[in-house]
Structure formats: structure tokens, C-alpha cells
Write a structure and sequence with these properties.
The complex is a heterotrimer of chains A (132), B (89) and C (223). Chain A has 132 residues and is mainly alpha-helical. Chain A is built from five helices and one strand. The longest helix of chain A has 31 residues. Chain A is elongated, with a radius of gyration of 23 Å. With 89 residues, chain B is mainly α. In chain B, α1 runs antiparallel to α2 and α2 packs antiparallel against α3. The longest helix of chain B is centred in the N-terminal third of the chain and has 26 residues. The relative contact order of chain B is 0.13. Chain C is mainly alpha-helical. Chain C has two domains: 61 residues; 135 residues, no CATH class. Helices cover 58% and strands 9% of the residues of chain C. Classes of the chains: A mainly alpha (132), B mainly alpha (89), C mainly alpha (223). Chains A and B meet through α2, α3 and α4 of A and α1, α2 and α3 of B. β1 of chain A pairs parallel with β1 of chain C.
Chain lengths: 132, 89, 223
């Protein structure tokens, strides 16, 4: 009976459909998390976290959903490639935006517990002033 | 049937995320915030295309998703590169 | 501390000679360059095959020709691989990475929903063990995706990463975060670090953690 159902793809289909559904809802929820983070976090730097991490997982889950519905091995490399490109580009974007933000003094110091970089920068500034 | 219901739920969730990103895009306050919001919006659009591919079982949009990652990257990096501090002399 | 490496190998005296010996040296140099760029070319062939969703030999050969043309036209400084890759550790690391990405995403979600505007952060400086650019890049990428942080600034002279960390409430948590980063770096060295780095890591671990100098960076380099 089960073997016949498997041959029809009945049971396996149902299970895969359920996994797909979970992946889709989970991935979409990650987008909601990014949106909530963008709205609720107080400064640019915290928002940056909301923009990178959940999005990487969200896109992964949705690409997994696509793979589970297509069910062809030929589709796997290109889906993996799409995720890999996001994996490679998201941190660079975060770094470039974060660096620009730090250099243009977007950082709210009162939100910080400790700032190692500020010590280094002000030390260098002091040395520069002494030389003048 | 499961897929259709899940697709509706995820579609609504994605729309919610997109609206929140749009609000951040409108409110700003700085250009970098808007860049970030645009980035998130693009990823949400890519997620939506993935949803379409999963529900209708095709791979027509996959190249857009691959290229979309790279275009978002180039756009954000370019903006970040030319942001300067106008508040302090 | 490994010596600083140049992207472009300085020319040997023999290569500066003109004439037939110079031509031979040039040919050798071209062959060496081809070998260095072979991983990049192979990667581009894989991308080509994936984009066409077709890994048949004809398509791959055509992709290889195109990637050779791309490599020859758009010259880049070659990426120096460490020449080591541990497949088993790589697999373990990939699985751990996936799990941590899930954890980090959920963490950001929880912080966004429940803490929101009252969240406290920190900018933490961390001295890396390795001085290789590739290692610093890989570590920066992994750290942006895993433990709730992203790279604000890199100081290459002292190889220090300055990370912005979400949801840090006191100095103890910052210290715990530092330890976590050291662990991730150790795992990454086990996967793809050079032999010297691996040796240094082993002696450090057999020496015990107590004998370690404090990983906290202090200001001696110029930012």
C-alpha cells in the first residue's frame, strides 16, 4: 500500500509539500523580521543587522522551497549559486555602508556599551593635533 | 492545497515586510538608511519571485535572483562610497 | 608574524634580461600566472554551467574559453590561496554555519520585536591571529552572518577587526563575544588556514588558554 503510494508519489508528495510550506512561511517571516528591525531599531547600525542576517536565511528558505517543488537536480546548482552570491555580497554591503556611516558620524555613542574604535580614532586624532 | 494556503500566508507576510521597508525608505533620516531599506526591499522582491517559482513550479525568474544580488550590491556600495559628512566642517 | 606579502611577485634578475632568455622567462611567468588563476577560471566555468543549468561537456568547454578570455581581458591581482583545505572540517564548519545563521536570524528577530528602540550595542576590536588578506576577508564575511555582528573597520597594519555587535549590555558580554570570535577564527583556520597558522593554533591550544596574551587590542597601530 505504502509502496504503491510512494510509486504514485502520493505520500512523498504530501511530505515534500508540507516541508515546502514550512520553508515558505519561515522565509517570509524572516522578511517581516527585517521589516520590524528596520522600523524599530534606534540607529543605522542596529538596522544594518536587521537588513543582513534574516534576509540571508529568508532567501535560503525560499530557494529551498523552490528546489523542493522543482525536484530536478539540474536546478540545484543555480539555486545554490543565487544563495552563494547573496552570501558573498551581503557582508560587503553591510561593511561598506557601516564604514561610511561610522566615518560620517552616524553612530550614536550613547547607545554603545563600549567603543574600541573610538579610542583608536581619538588617539590618532590627538597625535595628529600634537604634530601640527 | 497546503502549498496554496502557505503561499497566501507568505505573500501577506512579504507584503507586510515590504510595507515596513517602504516606511523606512520614506522616513529616512539619512541616505544610508534609505539605501538599507532599498536593499531589504529588493531582497523581499526576490523572495516574492521565489515564492512564485515554488508555487507555479518553474525557473523563469532564477537569473533575475542571481543578478539581483549583484545589482543590489553594486548599488549600495556605490552610494556608500560617495556618502560624505555634510554636518561637520 | 608572517612577513607582508606582495600581490605582484618582484621580478627576478633573470626576468629583467632581454633576448631569448627573457622570452623564456616571460613564458614561464605567463604559465605561473595561468596556474595561479586556474581556481578562478574553474569557478567561472562552474558559474557558467549553473546559469545555463547544463553541465554537458560542450557547454563547459565553451564556458572555459569565455572565462579564459575574461581572465585575460580583465586583469586582477591574483588571490593567494593558502594551498590547504580540509574537507572534513569544511563540512562540519558549513553545517555549524547554517545552524548559527538560523540562530542569529531568530536572535535578531527577537531583539527587534521585544527590545526594539532600547537595544544596547558595542563596537568591539578584535586582533586576528592571521595576517592573510584572504583569511581576514573570510572571517569578516562569516562574522557578519553568524554572531550578531558586522565589520565596521579593518586595520590591516595590526590586522584588527572592529565589529559592531548587536545586543551587548555589559563588558562581560563583550568579552564572551570576543571569545566566540576567537573560536570561529580557530575553526576557520582548521578549514583553510595555512600550515603556519595551523601550527600556531596547535601550540596555542596545547599551551592552554591561560598563557594567552589578552586578545583585547590596544592602540599601537595607526588607524
Amino acid at each position: 500500500m505504502i509502496a504503491m503510494a510512494l510509486a504514485d508519489g502520493g505520500v512523498a508528495d504530501t511530505v515534500l509539500d508540507w516541508i515546502t510550506a514550512v520553508c515558505m512561511v519561515g522565509g517570509a517571516l524572516m522578511s517581516v523580521a527585517a521589516g520590524i528591525g528596520l522600523l524599530r531599531f534606534p540607529d543605522l547600525f542596529s538596522r544594518m543587522h536587521a537588513a543582513t542576517k534574516p534576509q540571508v536565511l529568508g532567501l535560503f528558505l525560499l530557494l529551498l522551497a523552490v528546489a523542493l517543488q522543482i525536484r530536478a537536480w539540474a536546478a540545484v546548482p543555480v539555486l545554490l549559486l543565487a544563495w552563494l552570491f547573496q552570501l558573498l555580497t551581503a557582508p560587503v554591503t553591510a561593511h561598506m555602508v557601516g564604514r561610511a556611516a561610522y566615518r560620517t558620524k552616524h553612530l550614536k555613542q550613547e547607545k554603545l556599551v563600549l567603543d574600541d574604535l573610538n579610542e583608536v580614532v581619538s588617539e590618532a586624532q590627538r597625535r595628529l593635533d600634537e604634530r601640527r | 492545497m497546503t502549498i496554496i494556503i502557505a503561499a497566501w500566508i507568505s505573500g501577506i507576510a512579504l507584503a507586510l515586510g515590504a510595507v515596513m521597508a517602504l516606511v523606512r525608505l520614506a522616513r529616512g533620516p539619512s541616505i544610508l538608511d534609505r539605501t538599507l531599506a532599498l536593499d531589504v526591499l529588493l531582497v523581499i522582491i526576490m523572495c516574492g519571485l521565489c515564492l512564485d517559482m515554488a508555487v507555479n513550479r518553474h525557473l523563469n525568474h532564477i537569473v533575475f535572483i542571481v543578478v539581483g544580488c549583484l545589482v543590489a550590491f553594486i548599488g549600495s556600495v556605490t552610494i556608500a562610497r560617495y556618502v560624505t559628512d555634510r554636518r561637520t566642517p | 608574524m608572517s612577513p607582508h606579502r606582495h600581490h605582484v611577485r618582484p621580478a627576478r634578475p633573470s626576468e629583467l634580461l632581454t633576448g631569448s632568455r627573457g622570452a623564456r622567462a616571460r613564458a614561464r611567468r605567463r604559465r605561473a600566472r595561468f596556474l595561479i588563476e586556474l581556481p578562478l577560471t574553474l569557478w567561472m566555468v562552474l558559474v557558467w554551467g549553473a546559469l545555463w543549468q547544463d553541465f554537458s561537456p560542450g557547454n563547459l568547454v565553451f564556458g572555459f574559453v569565455i572565462s579564459l578570455a575574461v581572465v585575460a581581458t580583465f586583469k586582477l591581482p591574483p588571490v593567494e590561496l593558502s594551498g590547504r583545505f580540509n574537507v572534513w572540517h569544511g563540512l562540519v564548519f558549513a553545517l555549524r554555519f547554517m545552524w548559527q545563521v538560523i540562530k542569529a536570524s531568530i536572535h535578531v528577530m527577537i531583539v527587534a520585536v521585544f527590545r526594539g528602540p532600547t537595544v544596547r550595542n558595542a563596537v568591539v576590536g578584535i586582533r586576528m591571529r592571521s595576517h592573510e588578506d584572504l583569511m581576514a576577508t573570510a572571517l569578516g564575511h562569516v562574522l557578519t552572518l553568524i554572531p550578531g555582528s558586522f565589520v565596521v573597520e579593518v586595520d590591516r597594519t595590526t590586522s584588527t577587526l572592529y565589529l559592531h555587535v548587536l545586543d551587548i549590555n555589559d563588558k562581560e558580554q563583550a568579552e564572551a563575544f570576543r571569545q566566540e570570535v576567537r573560536d570561529i577564527e580557530a575553526a576557520l583556520i582548521r578549514v583553510m588556514g595555512s600550515r603556519e597558522e595551523l601550527e600556531a593554533l596547535r601550540t596555542e591550544e596545547s599551551g592552554g588558554r591561560g598563557s594567552l596574551p589578552s586578545p583585547a587590542p590596544r592602540t599601537e597601530g595607526k588607524p
